[in-house]
Design goal:
Blueprint: E1 2-3, H1 6-12, E2 22-27, E3 30-35, E4 45-48, E5 53-59, H2 62-69, E6 76-80, E7 83-90, E8 93-99, H3 104-118, E9 122-131, E10 140-148, E11 152-155, E12 158-161, E13 165-167, H4 170-180, E14 200-207, H5 218-226, E15 232-234, H6 237-245, E16 251-261, H7 265-270, H8 273-291, E17 312-314, H9 315-324, E18 335-337, H10 341-354, E19 359-363, E20 377-380, H11 384-387, E21 389-390, H12 392-397, E22 405-406, E23 420-426, H13 427-435, E24 443-451, E25 461-470, E26 476-486, E27 498-500, H14 503-508, E28 514-516, E29 521-529, E30 536-540, E31 546-550, E32 554-561, E33 567-575, E34 581-588, H15 594-598
Parallel strand pairs: 5-8, 5-9, 9-16, 10-14, 14-15
Antiparallel strand pairs: 1-4, 2-3, 3-4, 6-7, 7-8, 9-15, 10-13, 10-16, 11-12, 17-23, 18-24, 19-20, 19-23, 21-22, 24-25, 25-29, 26-27, 26-28, 26-32, 29-30, 30-31, 32-33, 33-34
């Protein structure tokens, strides 16, 4: 957690607020978001989210909701297509909870809705169930599989079952086996609820649409005859796991606390066993989340085809992977460093050209919309990327169907039949690339802004100055700022690269590298003008020598060294007929050149003059 004043950052130009009133910035601790609602610097916070994992938990009853939310004390409600979710943090998990009511059908519908919206790593159904055999009140059953026991065929000879089941994820089953041998999970139980010792069981659960309250009833006899290994019975698990199944690779599991046995259900409910059982199931669920290791994350499943074909992941999901790996995937972020979106896009295109990542997509033939697009997903040959690349803004912001391969010198509709949309990547290759050739460079730990208050230094006034702040968690004593490229004619005798000094160094007549403690800012003037001639500008070197240039629209590439990594910025100084200055700045990759500004960025396309902060 890094404390910052959000409004101050915005007002000074370090970050830009997005439409959803969040700002994105990269620190040494990861890629994070801040909101604009914080009232002051003390309450404003920037949270790194690179390690955040997502989970969805569904329940059927209000007593189950209370039990789950006890583990999420700071939850807030979140509405998704009229469905209310309770969203909170548990350790490094972002957890969304919904109460779906009784029945397999609503469980399936809400499971699919929750997974589609939150894109979780895992999904759990947590609640109470009736014990069938080998269990006691308060015990917990982790369902290794869930039977849909009401599927079958009615014949003249009677009902013939057609077994239908879904299995839990292997990772959850294995964690359950560990819990069965340990008791430390009981520390998560509500201390206000008392009951006998609880045991963890692994085994089948049966789910139908009936409440079973007697061992002598037809349904109970039917379960005994056809599903004799069933440990517990309930009404939502089969539908829930079906909703998980159609959203592979989400890992799913049903966890139930035994609140009643088939005989004496009303009596156990009256004694508070529902509350006790719901609490026990929740304790086990959150213990599993706490111990589920990152390496247990699944690789996204193939979006189509046989199991022998490579698994594919949508490029929007890969975008999230890249952010987790340290790339700044926001087109308007203000940190400096080679982990920027433009560098990422160039490297990704090169990976496609080299065949390091196999891409698939739909050939772009029409604009009728996704629902009417019947084009199949096909492999894109690596040669395609020698001519075509990716649009940076689409890659950062668009939905998967609206991300195209493209060429910057032609309109998109003019490339119909030649480019692809709705892009997917080979998941295994993409993961490997992010860990090797696509590994994110370190952030420079520096934020840059335009300084709008240009105080005079002796008789000279800065035309444009940069505010450079150390946003890392460390102090650095060797900062160096250089102009490496200048549009127009470089003045005679002006050395390049040209070392710049801070305003304090210029006033004190000192030189060399300067110190920036954590959070500290230095003002670095770029170019000056004198008190008489507004149409004449000049640079001042370390020795106080001046190099004059005519006042004109100017582009300057600045490199900053001495932080956690190198940083670079492009400054554009525009002016009107009255010599009034209108500067802007954007962060760029360290290998960015003015030639790229004049033409096309290889592998990306045209870069606008002023997409950065102003």
């Amino acid at each position: 957690m890094v404390s910052v004043g959000v409004q101050w950052l915005v007002s000074t130009g370090y970050v830009e607020m997005n439409n959803d009133q969040t700002a994105v910035i990269l620190t040494e601790s990861g890629y994070g978001k801040i909101t604009g609602n914080e009232p002051d610097a003390e309450s404003a916070s920037l949270t790194a989210v690179s390690n955040t994992r997502r989970a969805v938990i569904l329940v059927a009853l209000e007593v189950e909701t209370r039990a789950v939310l006890r583990h999420l004390p700071d939850w807030k409600d979140d509405v998704v297509r009229d469905t209310v979710f309770y969203r909170g943090r548990f350790e490094n998990w972002d957890v969304a909870v919904a109460e779906v009511g009784a029945g397999n059908y609503p469980a399936a519908v809400i499971a699919e809705r929750a997974i589609a919206h939150y894109k979780p790593e895992v999904a759990l159904f947590v609640g109470v169930a009736g014990g069938v055999k080998d269990v006691e009140l308060g015990d917990i059953v982790i369902g290794t599989k869930v039977y849909g026991y009401e599927t079958g065929k009615e014949t003249a000879q009677g009902f013939r079952t057609r077994p239908n089941s879904s299995v839990a994820s292997h990772a959850f089953e294995q964690r359950g086996r560990v819990l069965r041998q340990r008791s430390d999970w009981t520390a998560r139980l509500n201390p206000l609820l008392t009951s006998s010792e609880k045991r963890v069981h692994l085994g089948p659960i049966a789910a139908g649409e009936k409440v079973i309250a007697s061992t002598q009833g037809q349904v109970a006899q039917f379960l005994s005859e056809h599903y004799g290994d069933t440990l517990a019975v309930e009404m939502e698990g089969r539908g829930f796991l079906e909703g998980v199944h159609v959203n592979a690779p989400v890992q799913g599991c049903v966890i139930r606390g035994i609140s009643g046995l088939l005989e004496g259900k009303s009596s156990s409910d009256a004694k508070g066993w529902q509350e006790i059982a719901a609490d026990a199931a929740s304790a086990v669920a959150f213990e599993i989340l706490a111990t589920l290791k990152p390496e247990d994350r699944p690789i996204p499943a193939d979006s189509g085809g046989s199991s022998s074909q490579p698994r594919r992941v949508p490029i929007t999901e890969f975008r999230d992977w890249a952010a987790e790996a340290g790339w700044c995937m926001d087109a308007h972020a203000a940190p400096m460093g080679d982990n920027d979106l433009w560098t990422f896009t160039k490297r990704l295109r090169q990976a496609a050209v080299d065949g390091d990542i196999q891409f698939s997509g739909k050939r772009y033939l029409s604009d009728y919309g996704k629902e009417l697009d019947s084009e199949p997903l096909t492999r894109i040959p690596s040669q395609h990327f020698e001519e075509f690349s990716f649009d940076v803004v689409q890659l950062a912001q668009a939905e998967n169907y609206d991300i195209f391969t493209y060429r910057p010198d032609e309109l998109q509709r003019g490339l119909r039949g030649r480019i692809f949309r709705d892009l997917y990547l080979d998941a295994t290759q993409a993961r490997a690339w992010l860990g090797n050739a696509g590994k994110a460079p370190a952030s420079a730990g520096v934020a840059v802004r335009l300084n709008t208050v240009n105080a005079r230094i002796d008789d000279d006034s800065p035309v444009c100055s940069l505010g450079i702040q150390n946003i890392s968690a460390n102090d650095f004593s060797g900062y160096l700022v250089q102009i490496v490229e200048l549009s127009g004619t470089v003045p005679d005798g002006m050395p390049m690269p040209f070392v710049l000094r801070t305003d304090r160094q210029i006033r004190a007549g000192t030189r060399d590298r300067f110190l920036l403690s954590k959070g500290q800012e230095a003002i670095v003037p770029l170019i000056f003008r004198g008190p008489v001639r507004a149409n004449e500008w000049f640079f001042i070197d370390e020795g106080g020598n001046k190099y004059f240039v005519p006042a004109d629209s100017t582009k300057i590439i600045v490199h900053i060294f001495g932080g956690a990594g190198p940083g670079a910025a492009l400054v554009f100084i525009d002016l009107d007929a009255g010599w009034n200055v209108f500067p802007s700045v954007k962060t760029v990759a360290s290998d960015h050149t003015l030639e790229m500004e004049r033409g096309l960025v290889p592998g990306i396309g045209p870069v606008a003059d002023m997409p950065g902060s102003t």
